[in-house]
Structure formats: structure tokens, C-alpha cells
Amino acid sequence: MKALVTGATGFVGAAVARALSVAGWQVRVLVRTGSDRGNLQRLAVEVVEGDLADLSSLERALEGCSGLFHVAADYRLGARDPKALYRTNVEGTRNILNAARTAGVGRIVYTSSVATIGIPSDGSPGDERTPVALSNMIGHYKRSKYLAEEVVRDAARMGMSVVIVNPSTPVGPGDIKPTPTGQLVLDAASGRMPAYVDTGLNIVHVDDVAAGHLLAFERGGAGERYILGGEDMTLQMILAQIARLVGRTPPRVRLPYAAVLPVAYLAEAFARLSGRSGRVTLEGVRMSRKRMFFSSSKAVSVLGYRWRPPLEAFEDAVRWFRERGLLS
């Protein structure tokens, strides 16, 4: 079978393209003109140029495809031009679903995020049934992904066979930008994280997320969503595990939220003046007030989804960064 993968030059998209190739699929990838294609160098894929804003290019890319894995997204926190997030994440999703309908694509997997999943007030892990609304979304990235999911669910209600997957916090090789999470791993391994805040993330190897995409294509229900996560870890645990991997001393200073918030305001003011995005953003700090813990039990029971220990994800990520000279 032949599938189109969007976002395959990026972190999760490249992992999905790899998994499809290993599984024997014919893989076609949609790339923008001038995009960094480093993640595609060792993949046996057909490259077609196009853009999520160009409907005709999407229809051409989908010709002859029985499957679509729409992974492409604008994943930035504190973006100076939030309209770009909505153009890519919301309107781009609407465009490619319309193109898939025209091309007669039989099955679609849409990559969302746990950013759209509710977090229970009692501190327990969120799941696909946790109540949530647009008003709960912190920042434009989360809002854009929430609205994109609405577009996908509307398409499913209109009869399209589209499944939603919600990766938690992927870590591993190929984080080429890197993503905000990849930057955290790189900073921790480089000794640039001397302190931590009391928050938490659900860590999963990017290749396990990719495998979950294939399982969703094969076994997922149309209009259903499945969290593709791994293990819940506090930020202190994450930083300690990475520090031990590279022989550094883990940070022992915990910063209260009230101390970090003014730093975020100053960092964003500097970013506006300098024209460069900083590592500390108001969105990221505000999100850190809650531990972003999630349950993948639905994906386990319905899809047969599994994940490996987070340590393996950190090992692979650190090795990848080191091989590229980003970590001395």
C-alpha cells in the first residue's frame, strides 16, 4: 500500500515514515520547498513538494494513496505571529482532509497532541474522556491543536475514516529543530538546567509513537482518539535521569512558580526586541503549573499499543545530539 506522510522532515513525521518503510509500505512524503530534508536522507521515500496552504499540491501528492498520515504541525510556544499557527494547524488540516476526500483516500491518521486532553484537578492522569474546553487551552499552540481536532471530528461525522492519535511528550533521535522537549533534553545534558520547577511530563520514545500510528491505522475507530504515551515523570526525575546519562550532577534547586513567572515576562520582552524566540516562554511556564500526566490505557486495550522505558528514549536522544556535534 502507498501512504502520504506530511511533516516527515520533522521529528515525529520522520519516525512515522521510518516505521511505514520498515512495515513494507510505499511511502510518499510532502515537503515544502527549501525545507531541511536531513531526516529523509536514509529513508526510501518518494519526495513531493507542496504546501498545506496549496490545495492543488495536496491533491497531486495524494494521488494513488490509500492512506494518509497527517503529522505536520507548527509546534512552537510563544510564537510572535500566532496567526501562522492557526494557518498551519487548523486551516492546513482542513485543506488536506478536503484533498484526501477528493483523492478518495480510504483511511487517515491525524496526529494531534495531549495538549488537547484535559488534566483532572485531583492530579490523576488525564485520558480521552477527561472533560476539556477551548477555554482550558493555554496559549495559541494548544488552541490551534484543539480547533484542528474539531475539524477532524467534523470530517469523521461526515463519513471520513479518520483516526486521531494524541502523542504525549516524544523523545528520541531525529529531533532536528529541536522541539521544545528536545531542547530541554539538550539543555539538561549540556548542564544548562541548574534548577527545576515542580511539574511533570509523560515521556515516550518517538519510535513507539510512530508504531502507535500504524496500529491506529489498522485498528482504530473512525472519529476516536488514542493517547500514545509512556511513563509519567516529574521534571526532577527527568533531569536526574539525563544528568546521570552524561555524568553530571542532577539539579537540586526547586524554583517556585512565582519566581519563574517574572523571568518568563522578561524573556518574552527580550525576544520581541531581539526578534529571536527564547527558551523560556510564558506559555511554557503557565503550562508547568500542572503535571501533564496521561494514561494510554485505551490505546493499550484497543490498539495493542506498548512503550519502552523512558531511559531508552533519553539515551537515543542524547546519542543523536552528540553525533551531530550539538553535545560536547
Outline the structure in words:
By secondary structure, the protein is α/β, with parallel strands linked by helices. The protein has a domain at 2-171 and 204-230 and 294-308: Rossmann fold. Helix content is 43%, strand content 16%. The chain contains 11 helices and 12 strands. It has helices at 11-22, 55-62, 82-103, 139-157, 180-189, 206-219, 235-246, 257-274, 282-287, 297-303, 310-323; strands spanning 2-6, 26-31, 46-49, 67-70, 107-111, 162-167, 169-171, 195-197, 200-205, 225-228, 231-234, 253-255. The strands form 3 sheets. It has a 7-stranded parallel sheet, sandwiched between helices. It has a 3-stranded mixed sheet with strand order 7-9-11. α1 crosses α6, α3 (82-103) runs parallel beside α4 (139-157) and α7 (235-246) packs across α11 (310-323). It starts with a strand and ends in a 5-residue tail after the last helix. The model is unreliable at 261-271 (pLDDT under 50).
Low-pLDDT sequence parts = 261-271
Instruction: Give the termini separation.
Output: 42 Å
CATH superfamily of one domain: NAD(P)-binding Rossmann-like Domain
CATH fold category name of one domain = Rossmann fold
Tell me roughly what share of residues is in helical segments: 40-55%
Compressed to H and E, one letter per element, the order equals EHEEHEHEHEEHEEHEEHEHHHH
Q: DSSP helix count?
A: 11
Q: Regarding CATH, which class of one domain? A: Alpha Beta
Q: In percent terms, what proportion of residues is strand?
A: 15-25%
Shape assignment:
globular
In what order do the strands lie side by side in the largest sheet?
3-2-1-4-5-6-10
The biggest beta sheet is recorded as: 7 strands, parallel
- At CATH level 2, the architecture of one domain is 3-Layer(aba) Sandwich
Average pLDDT? 89
Radius of gyration: 19 Å
SS-based structural class?
alpha/beta
Number of strands: 12
